[in-house]
Amino acid sequence: MGAAGKISRESAYDLVEYSDFEKITIADYNEDAGMGVVKWLDDPRVDFVKIDVNDFQSAVASIKGYDLAMDGTTISLNDRSTACIAAAGVHGINLNGCGAEWEFDRQFSDNGKICIPGVGMTPGTTNLMTRQAADQLDTVDTIRISHGAFRPVAFSPAIAETTRVEYDPDLPSRVVYENGKFIQVPPFARPMEIELPPPFGTHTQYIIPHAETMTLPKSLADKQIQLIEVRGTWPPDNMALIRSLYDWGFMRNDKIEIDGIQIGIMDAIAGYLLQSKEGQNTALYGYALHVEVTGIRKGKKYRHILTHTHPASDGSVTGWEKLRAYTRCVGIPMSIGAQMIASGQIHGSGVVAPELALEPSAVFKELARRGILIHEKIEEISSQEA
Question: Taking the domain 8-116, which CATH number applies?
Answer without folding.
Answer: 3.40.50.720
